[in-house]
Specification:
alpha+beta; six-stranded antiparallel beta sheet
Length: 650
């Protein structure tokens, strides 16, 4: 529920100890490295560390070998002090073994495919009761085997029969193709081949000349294919055995190389001066003592820890420490942007208000529980972050369903605030609950806008920003104007007490607007900035009046925008009334058709309105609320934790 305090560590020591320090204190630790050369640019004689990485090429080689062997990347135990020299020969030998087995298996699979292809083609010669070797071995005649379209054969069959230099024998007559062979003389084969080409004859070229009859050739090819298949399966089995045998060593070698390569990559953040290295990075304040204890094992090593407030030339990264509810809604927050380091984390605020708005707009006990169950399934078994949000929203919808007394659209099962009915007040008579709900939605909007203005002031105090605290449209001046205007309007309309007197107007309404108009120079003056006087009157008034008009308009539009909270609650009831009416028209809710309509109608309303309400609530959060107090722009805290299952870039 807060941003974790950070300290900037500057580590200096003997250059030859850099890799050891990185292994002990940086890799897989909460250490966010910064570019030391930029941070220490005021210090003379600094140079970047040499970027050579002797592990990079072998690391890529290990990934290639793992891919060739079909082994997914992952962590395996290794000794970081093992020598590097033996790995190259190991990968070369293993790669050659895998490549040889795969090549032999591919050759055998190709032989199987050739044999099966020949078997398929020979089936169309089954009607020829001859020795196939005699056909392919003729010296004084030419023999062609293939197929032509059925329409062509039917149209030119008589013409082919009249030719003296050819003899066409159809072996298989199909619906679309006619397979066959034709014979011609050695002298006329060029002309005959051209003739059949014009008839779209497609010649079939067998990989090898068959021997014996079609049956004997087919049997021989089947035996050859079975033998090749058995051999290919044996190659696959050997490959699998090799994979299982070498899996642990491959992953161990890969993990070793990945670890040392990541350590070497940290040289890009460090710098050197003569024989000393300098490494800087952010560490959570609570863990600084532990880092210093680990560093104490190295002699002649210095470590300086500066708090974030003492470092003014670099922005600290943001690491959030949230409760369960804040973590559930953190993905929504990250869509807008992480909070800056000196800004309050609004995760828990967003979680509470999102559930509140969703529950009011989607108030139904039955549908809410179903939605919560769907979200729980998505979160628990599908590991979807959206599932947790759906679960919380469903439970909120179920809670407000009890307030409305609505269960799957039935309003008579539970008592509650019935939206389509009236409420009687003493001295006022009956008031429509629809109107009452819309008025309460506006009052909710007024309250939420005042709350976020207070949050903006608290952020301003942390950031020492006087414009946020005092003079901004969301600071003290904005609260005074907006709250005073709402108070006077409610007092006049509801109680008949007119607060719009000259003193009230001057102090509560006019003065805040003047402060907002002059917020730029006033905030610099309050901060003690001698340059506050550089703002010209024309510049301040010229741009200020337009911004002031936009500010006044935003107060109105943001307040009225909260009417959608009540409007969607009314829409939900209206949709369920339509579903119940359709069920009644279909023969009553007790009949099978009526029950089916009720079920399908509830599913439709739950999905359709749930999606719309979720989007509208997110819009309220981002535009009406966050825009008034939340700057975002935080840099995420990224420690050098190695994910061994992830691919490397490049």
């Amino acid at each position: 529920m807060s941003v974790v305090p950070m300290k900037l560590l500057t580590i200096a020591g003997a250059l030859e100890r850099f890799d050891d320090v990185v292994r002990v204190c940086v890799i897989d630790q909460d250490f966010h490295p910064e570019n030391a050369l930029q941070l220490m640019r005021g210090v003379g004689g600094l140079r970047p560390l040499e970027p050579e990485n002797p592990y990079g090429e072998l690391l890529r080689r290990s990934i290639e070998v793992a891919d060739e062997a079909g082994i997914p990347l992952g962590y395996a135990p290794f000794n970081p002090d093992d020598p590097l020299e033996d790995l190259s020969a190991y990968f070369d030998g293993l790669s050659d073994q895998v490549a040889a087995l795969r090549k032999r298996r591919e050759e055998l699979e190709h032989q199987m495919d050739e044999a099966h292809s020949m078997i398929d083609q020979l089936q169309n010669l089954r009607s020829l009761d001859v020795e196939l070797g005699e056909l392919w071995g003729m010296d004084h005649a030419r023999f062609r085997y293939g197929y032509l379209p059925r329409e062509t054969y039917d149209g030119f069959r008589e013409s082919l029969d009249e030719e003296d230099d050819l003899f066409f024998v159809p072996t298989t007559v199909g619906r679309r193709r006619v397979y066959g062979v034709y014979f011609t003389t050695k002298e006329a084969h060029h002309r005959v081949d051209s003739l059949f080409n014009s008839l779209h004859f497609t010649r079939i070229q067998l990989e090898e000349e068959p021997r014996g009859t079609v049956d004997t050739a087919t049997a021989e090819l089947n035996a050859r294919a079975e033998e090749a298949q058995a051999e290919a399966e044996r190659m696959g089995s050997e490959l699998e055995q090799l994979r299982e045998k070498e899996r642990e060593r491959i992953l161990s070698s890969y993990s070793y190389l990945r670890y040392h390569s990541e350590c070497r990559e940290l040289r890009q953040y460090a710098c050197r001066s003569k024989g000393t290295f300098y490494l800087t990075g952010w560490v959570p304040a609570a863990e600084v003592a532990e880092v210093e204890q680990r560093l104490s094992q190295f002699h002649d090593l210095s470590c300086v820890a500066d708090s974030a407030e003492e470092v003014d030339h670099v922005k600290p990264p943001t690491k959030l420490k949230n409760s369960f509810l804040g973590r559930v809604f953190q993905p929504f927050l990250e869509m807008y942007g992480l909070p800056a380091y000196n800004e309050r984390d609004p995760s828990i605020f967003m979680a509470i208000t999102y559930c509140l708005f969703f529950g009011i707009m989607f108030g139904d006990l039955g549908q809410g529980l179903c939605l919560a169950l769907i979200g729980f399934v998505l979160a628990r078994w599908k590991r979807m972050w959206l599932g947790g949000i759906i679960t919380c929203c469903g439970l909120s919808g179920a809670l407000f369903g009890c307030v409305y007394g609505s269960v799957f659209g039935f309003e008579h099962i539970l008592p509650g605030f019935k939206i389509m009915e009236e409420t009687t007040f003493a001295g006022m008579g009956a008031v429509s609950n629809v109107l009452l709900l819309l008025v309460m939605s506006i009052l909710l909007g007024v309250f939420m806008l005042l709350v976020v203005m207070v949050l903006n002031i608290l952020n301003g105090i942390r950031q020492r920003d006087f414009q946020k605290i005092l003079f901004g449209p969301n600071g003290a001046a904005g609260i005074l104007f907006y709250g005073g205007l709402i108070l006077a309007a409610v007092s006049t309309l509801a109680f008949g007490v007119n607060l719009f007197h000259p003193a009230y107007i001057l102090i509560v309404l006019i003065l805040p607007l003047v402060l907002i108009l002059l917020r730029e120079p006033l905030s610099h003056l309050a901060a003690g900035d001698p340059g506050w006087s550089r703002f010209s009157v024309g510049e301040v008034l010229g741009t200020g009046f337009f911004e002031l008009f936009e500010t006044l308009l935003s107060y109105l539009t943001n307040t009225l925008s909260f009417m959608r909270v009540g409007a969607y609650a009314i829409t939900h009831v209206g949709l369920m009334l339509v579903v119940h009416m359709l069920a009644e028209l279909a023969g009553g809710m007790g009949g099978p058709v009526g029950i089916l309509i009720l079920v399908l109608g509830n599913i439709f309303v739950m999905g359709f309105e749930g999606l719309l309400v979720g989007i509208q609530v997110l819009r309220l959060e981002f535009y009406e609320l966050f825009g008034r107090f939340y700057d975002d722009g935080g840099t995420p805290f990224v420690s050098k934790t190695i994910n061994y299952a992830a691919r490397i870039n490049g």
